[in-house]
Amino acid sequence: MTKQEEFIEIYQNKITREGADKLLEYLKSPASDFFTAPASTRFHGSCEGGLLAHSLNVYECLTDYMARERVRTTYGLQCSEETAAIVSLLHDVCKINCYRKGTRNVKDKNGVWQSVPTYEFYDDMPYGHGEKSVYIINGFMRLTREEAFAIRYHMGFSGEENVRNVGAAFEKYPLAFALSTADMEATYFLEG
C-alpha cells in the first residue's frame, strides 16, 4: 500500500462528517499538491511526498499518545477516532501549493561550491500557519472548537504565537497539547 492509499484509507474510515468527502476530493485534485508536496524547505520532510509522510507520522504519534494509560486516566484526555484523524492528518494543509523547486549553493566535503536542489517557500495566501489550516478545512467541513484550537496551536511554543495564548490554549484544550507533542515527536524523532 502506498502512503497516499494509506492516507485515503484512514481518512475515509475515520472521517465521516458532512463535507469530508469534498475536502478529500480537493486534496486529490490537480488544484492541490498535498500528496506530493514537501513538509518544509530544508528540514523535516523536505522531499517529494514529505507533507503526506509527515501527516501520517503525526497521526501515528497522536494515536499512540492518546492510547497511553496515563493520558486517558491521569490526564483524562480523550477524543474520538474521527477527531484524532482530522487534527493529525489535516493540521498542515496550510502547506498545500506553497513549495516550489529551486536550487541553492552549498560546499561539499572538499569545500567546493555545488548547486543542489531545494524547495523555496512561497505562500500566496499568507494567513498564518495553524489558522490557515483551520480556515481551509472549515471551507469544506465544520471543525469543533477543540479541533480548531488543536490545529491552530499545533506548533506549540516553537511557533511565532504569543506564549500566553499557547499556554492558555493548551490548558483549555488539552488536545492542542497532544497534537503539538505528536507533531514535535514526528518532526524531531521520526523525520529529523
Search tags:
52% helix; 192 residues; mainly alpha
Report on the architecture of this protein.
The chain has nine helices and two strands. Helices cover 52% and strands 9% of the residues. It has a two-stranded antiparallel ribbon. It starts with a helix and ends with a helix. It has 192 residues and is mainly alpha-helical. Helix 1 packs across helix 3, helix 7 runs parallel beside helix 9 (174-190) and helix 8 (163-172) packs across helix 9 (174-190). The longest helix has 18 residues, at 50-67. The chain has helices at 3-14, 20-28, 50-67, 69-74, 81-90, 130-138, 145-152, 163-172, 174-190, and strands at residues 99-107, 113-121.
Class derived from helix and strand content: mainly alpha
Taken in chain order, the helices and strands follow as HHHHHEEHHHH
- Major beta sheet summary: 2 strands, antiparallel
Spans of at least 5 consecutive residues whose pLDDT stays below 50 are: none
Q: How many beta strands in the DSSP annotation?
A: 2
Shape: globular
CA-based gyration radius: 17 Å
User: Could you report the average pLDDT, rounded to the nearest whole number?
Assistant: 95
User: Helical percent range?
Assistant: 40-55%
* Strand arrangement in the largest pleated sheet: 1-2
Termini, distance in Å? 24 Å
User: What is the number of helices?
Assistant: 9
Strand fraction equals 5-15%
